[in-house]
Amino acid sequence: MYATPGAPPTGRSGPRRSAPAARPLAAAVRAGARGLFSRDPLLRNGHLLAVSSLVNAALGALFWVLATRWYDDAAVGLSYSALSAMLLLASIGQLNLSDFLIRFAPSAGRHTRRMVLTCYGVSAVASTAAAGAFLLLVPRAAPDLGFLRSPLPALCFVLATAAYAVFVMQDGALTALRRPGWVVAENIVFAVVKILLLGLGALLALATGILLSWAGALVVALLVANVVLLRHAVPRHERTSPDARPPARPVRYAAADYAGSLFRMAAYTLVPLIVLNHLGPEQSAYYSLAWVVAYVLYLVTRNLGSSLVVEAVRSPERLVEHGRRVMRHSALLLGAGVAVLVAGAPLILDLFGEGYSDSGADLLRLLALSALPNIVVSLAIDVSRARRRLRLAVGLQVALCVLVLGLTTALLPVMGITGAGVAWLAAECLLALPLLLGRARWLATGPADPREAS
């Protein structure tokens, strides 16, 4: 799963809503409640994963509010850029094996433990290598992050990169085994420990306190989640489906899916670095916090899509039905969320301190609006993954990366950080419109080939 270095506040800010504005929010709350208490695992698990994102968002918002109070703007901007680099490197190193587990662990049977542990080991080694290579290239690739080459920050950065790769995969494994409640729990543990360590770093006047808090929290969250996963969830899954066969041609699938995911993650994580290099650390901080707030909407779509893939593996004949339901529910939930962010952007960003609202309100509105066309783009990618027909999924992620990074680079000198928001909205719309008009080609067709169901 994809993530950002933080998450937004929810339910604490925004202007007073009129009755017309409140109606879509009330409808979204009712839809969410029905999903949480539904017996249908598609909606129940998808909504629990969405709740995980929202909880992480609220606690992540508190983390960054405190960070902006306890550290200066330059430290926040540099730390967020370093964390963005860490997330990109973790994504490179984890080889998109989280999505691999979501797709194949439900049908792995007695091979599940070996599959999970193999994915952990491969990703830890690859992530460590990627982080080490990045540190060697910092003087040329991102000279403002030169502080990462000091011994303690360097060690912390490398270990945190490897740990985050495993952290993402454990979420994928828990999702695949229908344990989304534990995804909520381990994200709460991660967020709370991170805040406590952030305060300790500020108390000790550590300039790298933001980065150290992430590293320490990852260690604790990994221990908690893997006790549940490896001692309870995996053994139960292996007992209930002992005769399941390992997937056919998994390496080819994993390689293609990984190639596409790199481009998508690059779009998410390279923009703060582009802003840093073009406009400096303070503007990078303003962009980063606006993205943190808006990205939770992307996570809701992503989580519902993960539930779709898991249920499509178990019942491939219902993929089209499930895809349409996910699109409807995502549109309802995100429509309300976008309305709140567009209306309340200045007040929400005011929580992070002086300057964030003035510089980032329009940016936040544009980023929030971009989450609506992203529903169609993400659904098309997830349907392709479920069917093991990855040409469309890879193509969409490559196109998204090229459009976002190209438009951001072109618009920043003209529009400032608002140009990054225009880039995101334009890129998502350019991809979503033809997908929506041609949805009969990728959604309203028969289920995947039964020979590829595992």
Automatic annotation (TrEMBL):
Taxonomic lineage: Bacteria, Bacillati, Actinomycetota, Actinomycetes, Kitasatosporales
Record key words, sorted: Cell membrane, Membrane, Transmembrane, Transmembrane helix
Compartments in which it is found: Cell membrane
InterPro entries: Poly_Biosynth_Transport
Membrane topology according to the record: Multi-pass membrane protein
Organism in which the protein naturally occurs: Streptomyces sanyensis
Transmembrane portions of the chain: 48-66, 78-97, 117-138, 150-169, 181-205, 211-234, 288-310, 331-352, 364-383, 390-411, 417-437
Protein's recorded name: Polysaccharide biosynthesis protein
PANTHER family associated with the record: O-ANTIGEN TRANSPORTER-RELATED (PTHR30250:SF11), PST FAMILY PREDICTED COLANIC ACID TRANSPORTER (PTHR30250)
